[in-house]
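During the second year of the project, the team shifted from modelling isolated chains to modelling whole assemblies. The rationale, set out in the original proposal, was that interfaces cannot be judged from single-chain predictions alone. As a representative example for this report, we include one of the complexes processed in the last quarter. Its constituent sequences, exactly as entered into the pipeline, are reproduced here:
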Amino acid sequence: MTTGRWPDRAAAEALLDGGHGGTPLGRVLTAARGPAGPHEFVGEPEATAAFRASDRTTGPVRARRTLSRLLAIKVAIAGALLTGSGLAVASATGTLPIPDREEPRPAPAVPARPPAPAGEHTTRTPGPPPSASPSRKPKGPNEHARSPHPRRNTEQPTPGRKSPNPANTPNGQRQ
Amino acid sequence: MKLDLSEPAVSAGPADLSDAVIAAQAGDEAAFRELFRAVQPALLRYLRGLIGDDAEDVASETWLQVCRDLPRFSGDYANFRAWAVTIARHRALDHARKLRRRPSVPVPVEALMDLASGADTAHEAADAVATGAAVALIATLPAQQAEAVLLRVVMGLDAETVGRILGKRPGAVRTAAYRGLRRLSALMPEESE
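Output from the structure prediction step:
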């Protein structure tokens, strides 16, 4: 800068790569990258201890890992058993809606049914109102005989037969 | 990148320790020691140039983090060096932030003059003094120039790698190092070539 224009860019790159060792600046840079002295390995015991402590793939830590994996498996099995038995209990006691086959399929005909004004209709279905017709419609008359709600069959025996199309069902029921 | 093999470049040692990296990741303590011994001297010099006397503390923090994150590290020895430097740099910047200033690195002027003039530094103690003086001299540069020179000379990293570490283009790294060397050259007692 103040003294001459050496090094230029090329010479600077050479210096950075270890060249021009005979110049004052070259000697400084050579010294900067010079051989490591014993004092420069300071911290090795601490670093090694940290390595030992944090390493998760060797010795006792590996055993611990295996243990925790076993534990996780056990917990998973226990969880599965509990879930399974919970289901069984629920099924047995009937608290789950699964046994009633008519329950889960209300969707298609639901909108039409609740507004139905017929008195007979509302008293007829104190339980789950929308469930009866959708399951009844697509099925044949034999299905009615097997229905868990025989009342529906007797009071309103024919809507399914008359109108397989869900859209017509409410009208048929009201008639 | 040109490499003049006639020059001793022990600390920048390009010996490929990629196998040691893999072994250390698998838990091999001897391999970890090998990596430590290969990286720590240069890392300490770099940190000394950045933050002076607290270099050892920051290097220690750096190795803690290296140990902690080593299982998740992926790469060869060159990547490992760059990774360790990146960690060290972040730790050093945190440290400097706490101090709210860039720590000054005292320059041993006499040693520097001996060094520049080519006085005999054939034995170990003189080597150590010369090395310390050289790093201290580089540390007097403006921060960006100092860091570029330290990473390229002391850590032996190329401009591309230094650029990745500093978040700069390689060209910007070359320019910073070049300006740093020009400035250093102006401090030298004499010019040659």
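Chain B has a mean pLDDT of 88. Chain B has nine helices and no strands.
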